[in-house]
Amino acid sequence: MTDANDPDSSDDADSDSNSKVVRVLQRYELVGLGDELVEYWTGEATERKSLRELADYFNRELLARVLRDASVDTLDGEQANLYRLLTDEGVSSGAAVQATNRLEQHGIDVDQLTADFVSRQAIHTYLTSYRDVSYSSSDDDPVETETTNVRRLRRRMTTIVESKIERLRTTGRITLGAFNVLIDVRVLCEDCGAQYQVTELFDRGGCECTTDSSDE
């Protein structure tokens, strides 16, 4: 049995370019599941889920996909029970073996399946490093939260551009000496023509210009 929420799983120490969640999404063509994770974690969906709940949700969706691909018919609630038998450390070894044997009879590689289950840490890495989202409670300062998000996006963009340039330079497609990548995103106020860096605009609380509409 596998503890799908074990934070020490070796595959879960992912970078944004080597996310286990991304690999599983692509391998099993779980279209739309990544967006669901974002919606459930940020509260954009009707009910917010914790990272542990998201990991279980992801793994159950993965199991459901594998069962469909193998044409395994299940009764209502049976998929949830199969997931429990495969992951719950409290399940007897006999019950776990029975579940494994049943799946293997349908040609399912149970070892590969359970290895592809993800932990809450892998979900967190995917959401924060790959999707660049964060959860903020009602007590958090939204300006501070969005400032952090913008800075994270800028760092990620810098890393991506650097890697693309380095790849082209290494393969001889472009010629370039030592270099630095500078990402400068600015906001233009069309009312007064003032320009600000995004984080500067946040820090200032907006543009200081006075428009006709604000005087009315």
UniProtKB/TrEMBL annotation:
It comes from Halococcus thailandensis JCM 13552. The lineage of its organism: Archaea, Methanobacteriati, Methanobacteriota, Stenosarchaea group, Halobacteria. It comes from the Archaea. InterPro entries: RdfA (IPR048925). This is Uncharacterized protein.
